[in-house]
Amino acid sequence: MSRREDDLAEACDWVARLEADESGPEDWAAFTAWLDGGADRRVVFDQAQALSLMASTHRSPASGGVRRTRTLRTPLSRRTLLWSGLAAAACAALVAAPLLVDRQETPVQTFSAPKGERRQIALEDGSSLWISGPARLDVSMSAKQRHVRLLEGEAAFDVRHDPARPFVIDVDQRRVTVLGTEFNIRRDPERMILTVRRGLVEVAPLGDPRRGAVRVPAGQRLVHETGATRAKMAAADVEMAFAWREGRLVYRDDRLGSVISDLNRYLATSVRLEDEALAARPFSGVVRLDEPDVVIERVCRLAGLKSRIQNDVVVLGADQT
Amino acid sequence: MSDRPEGAGAAQGELTRAYLARRGDLVRFFAARLRSMAAAEDLVQELYVKIRQAPDAPVANPDGLLFTIASNLMLDRQRGDRRARARDERWTEANLTILGGQAVQETPSAEAALAAKRRLTRMLTLMRDLPPRTQEAFKLHKLEGLSHAQTAARMGISAKTVEKQISAALRAILERLEPDDEI
Q: How many CB atoms lie within 10 A of CB A197?
């Protein structure tokens, strides 16, 4: 057996061993010793691990109706937990006929999340949606088409590939068509931003699919200013655009001002800076979206700030100590 | 983040240096434990925040200490409300962050995404060529998400044998994947 074949066999052994759930300090020491023992071992291990992780991501989803919906984290409102549990059943009963694209009656389900809350919605086709409050969207699944209307807020999509049943999203004055991909749409009054993580998404003016269609590949984002005739495409920081879905906000060489506006977007609490000049302060780091006070404490620690409450608003000022 | 001035405390410097040297390996290790690259990245990031707050004290085995702190962080996370929906979470996290998460770091082109999809299809094809028992163990553990112990119980074999079957499956698939595309 060649050196490389040995390494490959051992790398696979390591992946399987570490996944066995019993690994402790001795395994860590032996593992690093093994990695350090050959120039290409990290490369081979990474291949084996990538395969292993890829395999565990490929699970066959159950079918029928909306599979499950749940609230990821509810920083303030406890009641919504129950509400979200009942949402699937309650919303399934809602029928809004005007939206229907197919002739047969397709029920439209409406999902929403209040400010400061994120929800995951699993669709019967294996696709998943995440919405970040305040947000609202309608979903209708027919035999010919999967149709979502994003009425308000931000949503991320992981769409299962099905050429026979296109996945269509109407947002603002744009129609987004996908075959199987993962992307995020943020809809503000001023603009719509679509960020593609993998796959390819086509965006066309609503009601005029032939003209002005743009294809957005992975790693790019499309920005459409409200009322503009054209949309602009640019390279995107995909990780940042998606981080909220995993409950994280990621900043790289950013300004404190962006952090504050994101906190106001994702937390139920209102936050402002004592002195506007602080907004220009550089900020890098990861902020996990947790209970508002934990989040604020973390931002304060990373940015050298101090917080106080004034009329229900959290005010952040420079920490002089 | 590595811009911390030298001499900010010998122990801290030592631990930080060890962290920077082992960062990638810690992610590898915990990605296997957590079955998620993203969760591992997150944990290792948290570890960094933690060691920056560590008190100044001589460290005999910085690598070992890093591992201990990271393991404790992982256990802290696994406790509490997460446990009840752990499997559900893992499915979601795996499904969404790994496939995408790896893609994110390299911000791949559409072709790369397509290649990943091709690789997945190929993996599923190759899986069917595995010996029946190996295939069954791989399917139960990977595709159905059972732990090694659960897979062992289902198949009436030992957990150690499951581990061997998984390793054999990975290796057989990797060896056949290699000729036409690199992972």
A: 28
